[in-house]
């Protein structure tokens, strides 16, 4: 125990083994849904759902444990939402590209990521992002995940007349989510230790007692075989031989790069890790993502990304890599006890996401709102993430505008050259690739 405390710098981070364990469990419970959502999405592309389930858990475990042991951050990594939908619906179904070939594209993007990370190019790009835009990214992610939580709970729904509107407040599932949100808010206001985790447990318990959440019929289940998807990306590498497929690889690169970079900046800001506007050990953290993406592509799942739900573990006190180690180990155990995860419904996770949104919105105070040239791109980042339902799209909007407003106010020389390059890349991405 003493060695663990020294290795993860417990004294410096003012944390404890118990706190890290609770944080690891909280993060895992908050993002466990990906084990079920990812197979459903990729299954639409014709992939074997059982194999994708196992690939999702294994890639998440490998990347997250790497993050904990090497980078020592309480940040979890797993196949990302959004990019998995792009893989299934845009690439495979829309472009009629076989999923095996699309997975080869993911592997190529992952290998490029490894090179960019090894030569510290990704780290340099992150450190060159202006501080105001970094805190805007953190705040935007807060709004984004709060929106996800409210939507998943059925409290915010689509409306053809007003785009979105308030959902039913009288349905059983909505009432369960409302109960969870109120209870968690009260616990947070009273500064109760592990408030978010306790709120999730209470919500799940009430759901089971009132028959809103069905208990699993069995508690242990062998992990499905990886055979249907394992190695398919390697076998089909030679299929990446057209401009269309090169565009697919580029899209995987851009979306995953900035989803992960933006999320890591936001989480590091929330946890207080940023020093002089830079993220310490950023290279090691990004390597964890690159490793996870490579492993995932080989065994059969869409690109991995740092998960915004890691903020729930940070919110309950997780500050060291031990949080990620516990989260990663739970992903491995989850492969054997997968039926138990069925009680973690969107109504159970919604309160955690909403509360974390409140906590991350605190970063808005650090944006220089008095300087419109900075405030405008920061605002587009913040509002763009929930409205486009994409972290990378929100970042793109702000990054494109930032050089323009700075030039307009005769401060173009203050903008790092990399920001001009990123603005150009995002322009090409938004107009020629993404849409």
From TrEMBL:
<dbReference type="InterPro" id="IPR026033">
    <property type="entry name" value="Azg-like_bact_archaea"/>
</dbReference>
<keyword id="KW-0472">Membrane</keyword>
<keyword id="KW-0813">Transport</keyword>
<feature type="transmembrane region" description="Helical">
    <location>
        <begin position="417"/>
        <end position="434"/>
    </location>
</feature>
<feature type="transmembrane region" description="Helical">
    <location>
        <begin position="51"/>
        <end position="70"/>
    </location>
</feature>
<feature type="transmembrane region" description="Helical">
    <location>
        <begin position="372"/>
        <end position="405"/>
    </location>
</feature>
<dbReference type="InterPro" id="IPR045018">
    <property type="entry name" value="Azg-like"/>
</dbReference>
<dbReference type="Pfam" id="PF00860">
    <property type="entry name" value="Xan_ur_permease"/>
</dbReference>
<protein>
    <submittedName>
        <fullName>NCS2 family permease</fullName>
    </submittedName>
</protein>
<feature type="transmembrane region" description="Helical">
    <location>
        <begin position="286"/>
        <end position="308"/>
    </location>
</feature>
<feature type="transmembrane region" description="Helical">
    <location>
        <begin position="21"/>
        <end position="45"/>
    </location>
</feature>
<feature type="transmembrane region" description="Helical">
    <location>
        <begin position="77"/>
        <end position="95"/>
    </location>
</feature>
<feature type="transmembrane region" description="Helical">
    <location>
        <begin position="163"/>
        <end position="187"/>
    </location>
</feature>
<feature type="transmembrane region" description="Helical">
    <location>
        <begin position="101"/>
        <end position="121"/>
    </location>
</feature>
<dbReference type="GO" id="GO:0005886">
    <property type="term" value="C:plasma membrane"/>
</dbReference>
<dbReference type="InterPro" id="IPR006043">
    <property type="entry name" value="NCS2"/>
</dbReference>
<feature type="transmembrane region" description="Helical">
    <location>
        <begin position="194"/>
        <end position="213"/>
    </location>
</feature>
<feature type="transmembrane region" description="Helical">
    <location>
        <begin position="328"/>
        <end position="360"/>
    </location>
</feature>
<keyword id="KW-0812">Transmembrane</keyword>
<dbReference type="GO" id="GO:0005345">
    <property type="term" value="F:purine nucleobase transmembrane transporter activity"/>
</dbReference>
<feature type="transmembrane region" description="Helical">
    <location>
        <begin position="243"/>
        <end position="265"/>
    </location>
</feature>
<keyword id="KW-1003">Cell membrane</keyword>
<feature type="transmembrane region" description="Helical">
    <location>
        <begin position="133"/>
        <end position="151"/>
    </location>
</feature>
<comment type="similarity">
    <text>Belongs to the nucleobase:cation symporter-2 (NCS2) (TC 2.A.40) family. Azg-like subfamily.</text>
</comment>
<keyword id="KW-1133">Transmembrane helix</keyword>
